[in-house]
Amino acid sequence: MLALLGGVVPVAAHAQRVARDAKAASAASNNASGDAHRRSPDAPFAFRGVALGITLDEFRAGSTVRATPLGSVPVCETDVQAGALGMRLKSRDSLTVACRWAHREDDRWALSQAVVDGAPALEHVLRFARTDAQSALHLYEISFVIDEITAEDLRDALADRYGPPRLATRNVSSPGALPMYVWENAVSSITLCFLPGSRNGTLTYLLKGSDAWVKSVVRQWQASGAEAG
């Protein structure tokens, strides 16, 4: 009997090791697949899981809240809480809508701080627009204002993840020009710009062609005379 057990235990241990190795390999494969997707030239850039191009409904339904304090939630210009946060209140038929993360503080709503590279951002906003009056609102821009130390650290982190920036203006001598770094793929871009004086940074995730797209949407609204802003 002892001899039989001596044979069974090594076999069981081996089977457990094989199962663990298979699980680890599967996890590594999934991570590699996720990395490949994030780096795909055809996939819009994402801010910590919040991808450009998603609909407003998808943004609201997702559990990805990248802000502090804990318990923060998305608040958009179509929500009644928007007015308490100093945001413009719009109808659900609006062609463009801005959102921010916010939280309840005692008996009122307060703006939260987006967390960028592990540090609270000074400002943030997520902007959505429709391609026409009937289509869903899609996320076309995410922008932040961050402090200089975070901006410098983020510049290195973005270069490590996406490679050298397509555009890099480090030492700028011409008046009005700002140090700027731009990463891009086929459908989107990330722009990091250092501001004069404060040396704070602006970080902007943007869908390509969205400027023309949003201007077209605004022209449609102005031409229709609709009250949906």
Secondary-structure blueprint:
Blueprint: H1 2-39, E1 46-47, E2 50-51, H2 56-61, E3 67-68, E4 73-76, E5 96-105, E6 108-111, E7 113-116, E8 119-120, E9 123-129, E10 138-146, H3 148-162, E11 167-169, E12 180-184, E13 188-194, E14 201-207, H4 210-224
Antiparallel strand pairs: 1-2, 3-7, 4-5, 5-6, 5-9, 7-8, 9-10, 10-14, 11-12, 12-13, 13-14
Looking at this protein, list some descriptive labels.
32% helix, globular, three-stranded antiparallel beta sheet, alpha+beta, 229 residues, single chain
Question: What do you see in this structure?
Answer:
By secondary structure, this protein is α+β, with helices and mostly antiparallel strands. Helices cover 32% and strands 30% of the residues. It is built from four helices and 14 strands. It has helices at 2-39, 56-61, 148-162, 210-224, and strands at residues 46-47, 50-51, 67-68, 73-76, 96-105, 108-111, 113-116, 119-120, 123-129, 138-146, 167-169, 180-184, 188-194, 201-207. The strands form three sheets. Strands 4, 5, 6, 9, 10, 11, 12, 13 and 14 form a nine-stranded antiparallel sheet that branches. Strands 3-7-8 form a three-stranded antiparallel sheet, with no helix packed on it. It has a two-stranded antiparallel ribbon with strand order 1-2.
